């Protein structure tokens, strides 16, 4: 196949990408930097996670260079943590995109993800603060329909359902049971009872975490709302009636998976193949001739969908429904061979966002030298394992 | 950066130098806006002690000054980067002060002020959308402002209806104007980009929440909303389905419009609608209302794929229509419904075979025919006299397999999918 010959022509420029990420965070006087002030914390999460994926695994292609690079972090851990804590907004008990801004679920998830990445959830979050965050998240859920608002101003979007569930799940795993015990061990037992029949550790951990989540939010209603956002094509939109979009599908599938309710996607009848396949098939149809993936029908491919689409396919165990060699080649073609970084399409300007999602996509395809990424939590598998998340979805 | 051409190091440096003044401006604005919040907080803290009239006067003046500074700074910033959510939040907090019903002496004056503030916010949101028509924050700000106005009208009509009817409120005609303008603006934006899903989402919001009450005619629908709900909902659905159809006929590849049509597709229940009129005796020869609707839909979608067979939008919609047939016939089993289903499968198979003969290298007709053969085989197996039809069933299964094997070559990107389907057919 021609695709594999194309991919063999291009190498992953790991070292240059590390440089690119570093430069992007150091040079604060660019227009790109100034225009992304409001999402600085998410930007940090992209950059730091991409960096971890590149250097965590010692068997890198450009082995020696990167090994040296590993010693020299993008930012010191101290600086990272200092910045995150400055982003904490006392008023909302959520993290903001930048110091002095208002707290929001989007950045609360980014902050917690970075804590997990650095294996320091308990070190950075006091029990008091963790509980405050949990309470804040529970207040953002609508009692009426189970949806989540991003902040007190009430914008509803399935993205925020994912942020809420992912953040709570990471906290439940990362803070340890003790943190959530004092307001009643009993509630925990009741909440987790139906999940606890399964034997192995993986399920035990998951059901324990789910039990904790059930104490904080209405998990079932939250999933019900997500299902209300499902469309004629099997995909999901931002709100009921909203058009299907690969990014939105990632958050909905991820949220359902975290809540152990992926079964909602399927009919009870195994014979209904067409019906049961429709979401994964729609996702497979995102691959276009050049190998890249788009986010909606009849749109141009974009490297970021390598992540949104492929992680969803991974969660549905259907990665093999697209041509992975061609996708790899597409992502590698979007690299800036000279100054590092990955862009949305070949020959466009690279940025940290696409660099992260490109590397994350390659990692999902087990690209040589890259640390493996978890398709649901969007963190290195090794990092989520440290807090007891053992997933079987890849 | 989305869609910006890659540059050489030299031109990057040049651009960096050129944009430096703007960077400095943005940095300054960020700093001032963050500082603003702190100043505001301190102000509130000090107020606790209370004071004499002079102090109050002074405080109001300072507050006014702070407010106008906040408005200027946040507007400046969101006009450059409309995703700066904290700016919108500050504006929302200020809007809240005007939207509260105080039920006091100067309701008229209050309403005038509210209208001005609302106009102001909608204007700033529009400026944001001019910068980026896909800005989540700018769209949300619009939705939020209109939802608050709507809440306010509802609350004032319920609290004051006994004393003086809500027809006194100047907010109702104001809302009507606003909604009219919103529709115009949406039209402009959807004409510029007919796939902008933010605009489509917003249209659904405007139509569902607002139009029902304020746009469809009489302002004082409020009192009879219970009675009219059904009728209005139906009318809205028809209008929106029609709107989607207009957009589709302008551009068959408009997936957003196909989606919109599916949202407003009328799920008719034949059993309820025609129970008294139609019984089993009227059989498949005279279509029920729902069958007529479905037939027309198949007709529309076939126009699209005959015109643009490589475009996936129509094929996706077609796939869904086929699944609607299943849902329809399983809602209550009746032989006439089942006969209609099989008949429709067969008709579509004939129709799409024609496309596939015209477009032998196009994967879509091959795929849909493969599925139809599979569906027909499955349906016939369920039939009572399936033994008699065993040969027909076998023929469909073989044909389906042949086509899936052909698809391995026609559409190699998705080989894995076709292989799975073939494996399951064994």
TrEMBL record, chain A:
Residues 12-378 form the Prenyltransferase alpha-alpha toroid domain. This is Geranylgeranyl transferase type-2 subunit beta. Its EC number is 2.5.1.60. Binds 1 zinc ion per subunit. Catalyzes the transfer of a geranylgeranyl moiety from geranylgeranyl diphosphate to both cysteines of proteins with the C-terminal sequence -XXCC, -XCXC and -CCXX. GO terms for molecular function: metal ion binding; Rab geranylgeranyltransferase activity. It comes from Bathycoccus prasinos. It comes from the Eukaryota. Its cofactor is Zn(2+). Belongs to the protein prenyltransferase subunit beta family. Residues 53-80 form a coiled coil. Keywords: Coiled coil, Metal-binding, Prenyltransferase, Repeat, Transferase, Zinc. One of its GO terms (cellular component) is Rab-protein geranylgeranyltransferase complex. It is an enzyme of class 2 (transferase). The lineage of its organism: Eukaryota, Viridiplantae, Chlorophyta, Mamiellophyceae, Mamiellales. It catalyses: geranylgeranyl diphosphate + L-cysteinyl-[protein] = S-geranylgeranyl-L-cysteinyl-[protein] + diphosphate.
Automatic annotation (TrEMBL), chain B:
Transmembrane segments: none annotated. Gene3D superfamilies: Protein prenylyltransferase. Pfam families: PPTA. Residues 1-17 have a biased composition (Basic and acidic residues). InterPro entries: Prenyl_trans_a. GO terms for molecular function: Rab geranylgeranyltransferase activity. Residues 1-21, 34-61 are annotated as: Disordered. PROSITE patterns: PFTA. Keywords: Prenyltransferase, Repeat, Transferase. It catalyses: geranylgeranyl diphosphate + L-cysteinyl-[protein] = S-geranylgeranyl-L-cysteinyl-[protein] + diphosphate. One of its GO terms (biological process) is prenylation. Its EC number is 2.5.1.60. Belongs to the protein prenyltransferase subunit alpha family. This is Geranylgeranyl transferase type-2 subunit alpha.
